[in-house]
Amino acid sequence: MVNGHERRAHSADSDLALVHRVLAGSHGALPLLAERLRCVVRTAQLMDQKQGYPLGSEGLGDLTQDVLVLAWRKLGEFEGLSTLEGWIYGICLLEHQNAVRRKRRLREEAQVLAAHNRARPAAALDPDPWAFEEVHAALRRIGRGEARIIRLKHFEGHSFEEIARALGLSPNTVKARYYRGLGELRPLLEKEARRG
């Protein structure tokens, strides 16, 4: 009779053999690997559930994609010390923590930008584009794609979905560029506020 440890070792050994076949270019091994990597979706869902759903469904989709890409890139590092599921769990755990931190940081940066805009005197609320001169100046100093999305969102009032359709991008890509742009804007606006 085989005990649990031997079964796990055998499974880890067979997973290592599978990875070696994939890395050697065996096309027949790819569907087997894909089947084994289906655990990523469930693992990500359980991690997010355990943390109180901080990422939500869109964030989970991004996390799943990130973990799969990272696992594929690091496949050569798999040593068979655990099963593929155990190895994936470790990657998923670290990526989930990174995603939660990133989402928190981006939310804080969005709040800083919103607070900066709310702190304007009544005269600055005029729809005249010169009313936000320092914001426009800062937008010219960040990436063009990010600046365009921020302008469409804040100055033209479009939703992420509308922006995505207009630019031919996915809503997740639009959101990522939006928050990246906010991250670039924040230090520029804070520097301007200290001068003003």
Describe the structure.
75% of the residues lie in helices and 0% in strands. The chain is an all-alpha fold. The chain folds into two domains: 4-102, Rna Polymerase Sigma Factor, Chain: A (Orthogonal Bundle); 120-195, Arc Repressor Mutant, subunit A. The chain is elongated.
Number of strands: 0
Task: From the 3D structure, determine the CATH topology of the largest domain.
Answer: Rna Polymerase Sigma Factor, Chain: A
Radius of gyration (CA) equals 23 Å
Mean residue pLDDT: 84
Produce the secondary structure layout.
Layout (H helix, E strand, L loop, with lengths): L3 H20 L5 H8 L2 H12 L5 H18 L10 H35 L14 H9 L2 H12 L4 H8 L3 H25 L1
Helix pairs in contact: 1-2, 3-4, 3-5, 4-5, 5-9, 6-9, 7-9, 8-9
Keywords:
mainly alpha; Arc Repressor Mutant, subunit A; 2 domains; 75% helix; disordered N terminus
In summary, what is this structure?
This protein has 196 residues and is mainly alpha-helical. Helices cover 75% and strands 0% of the residues. The chain is built from nine helices and no strands.
